[in-house]
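Q: How would the structure tokens look for this protein?
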Amino acid sequence: MVDGSPVKLTPIEYGILYHLSRNENRVLTFRTPLAKAWGREYVDEAEYLKVHIQHLRRKLGDNPGGRPMIVNERGVGYKLVHSDRASSRGA
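A: Here is the predicted structure in token form.
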């Protein structure tokens, strides 16, 4: 839910968000969400992950000018961070 409204996620987006949320504030290497959401044969397809992270950010209302909920750790992977904004939005 974002601002009291349900957010429709694809199965892949849900899988990525699920694994990020299970590891909140911990960086997951690019390979981990790829393996979990798509399967081990996709662990080298970082572009797939980048596209779906962009979709999640848009759907969850990440503000490019503010602190994002899904943070890229350059060259390593992504993490979901807890913020006042995220908790107030029900994310």
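The chain has a mean pLDDT of 85.

The helical segments are 11-22, 31-37, 46-60, 84-89.

Upvote if useful.
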